Amino acid sequence: MKNNFFPLNSYTPSYAGTVVKRNLVIEPKQEYFLYVPRNVCIGAPVFIAVHGVARMAKEHAEEFAPFAERYGVVLIAPLFPKEYFCDYQRLGRKGKGERADLAFKKIIKEVGLLTGANTDNLYMFGYSGGGQFVHRYAMAYPQNVARIVVAAAGWYTFPDSNVNYPRGIKRAKGLRHITFSPSLFLSIPACVIVGKRDKHRDVELNKSERIDNQQGLNRLERGRAWIQTMADAAMAIDLDTEYDFKVLPGCNHSFLKCMHRGRMGEHALNFLFGPI
């Protein structure tokens, strides 16, 4: 399909109800998948689904499209190719590829112009490496994030101002103009979802001793530790933020198994938008 913008309120795009792959108009090498529901309306919420290191952006879009249709939300699944975004999980630090956070913001702006959706408050989901991106993006840009679901992230940025980024929020070295405001990001409702069998220390897991000591030995332990630490930090500054931790029975570290066997899509959308 052509990358032509259409006037807001003029018509429902011909690709509504279909997952389409797009290239940014201002930066054609940057790709993303888009799903616009058939019943879309101006000001519809925007739901983000961010892939892990396997770069399964298309699968994310296809699996979440039925939920986007049901909820009437515009779905974006950005693609962060390894050759450009080798550090996307940590937003893209200087000397480690391009800035994933800035590329992501360009995608959001374009989709807002294309669809008339509300891009001021994003509803974000990320799986594995995508979960790392999502929670760090929310911490860096809390004013633009409504709620987040972090699924099976390998490790986390903790709300600790005494520890350097990306383990903590002190000095985001390599991320120009990024500062962290706990009073803002601790007000964002967050849910962590992990498969009950996601306990293996596989090749993709960060196994540094510092991470093990700070967060735990596997994705299950680390997710539980992070959500509890965030809840405690929010409570310490009198914020009654909603935090949730959900374990998916019978699921290991597999996006598709978590979606099909663990009903991860249903759990994620219920937390982000409420049950239907």
Low-confidence stretches: 1-10
Hey, roughly how much beta strand do the residues contain? 15-25%
Spatial sequence of strands, sheet with the most strands: 1-2-4-3-5-6-7-8
Average pLDDT over all residues: 94
Classified in CATH, the superfamily is: Alpha/Beta hydrolase fold, catalytic domain
User: Remind me, CATH topology?
Assistant: Rossmann fold
Give the CATH architecture: 3-Layer(aba) Sandwich
Oligomeric state of shown chains: single chain
Number of structural domains: 1
**Tally of extended strands?**
8
Give a description of the structure.
The chain is of the alpha/beta class. It has a single domain, classed as Alpha/Beta hydrolase fold, catalytic domain (Rossmann fold), CATH 3.40.50. Helices cover 32% and strands 18% of the residues. The protein is built from 8 helices and 8 strands. It has an 8-stranded mixed sheet with strand order 1-2-4-3-5-6-7-8, with helices on both faces. α4 links the parallel β6 and β7. α1 packs across α8. It is globular. The N terminus is likely disordered.
How are the SSEs placed, and which strands pair?
Layout: E1 20-23, E2 31-35, E3 45-50, H1 57-71, E4 74-78, H2 100-115, E5 118-127, H3 129-140, E6 145-151, H4 182-185, E7 190-195, H5 209-215, H6 219-236, E8 243-248, H7 255-260, H8 264-273
Parallel strand pairs: 3-4, 3-5, 5-6, 6-7, 7-8
Antiparallel strand pairs: 1-2, 2-4
Helix pairs in contact: 1-8
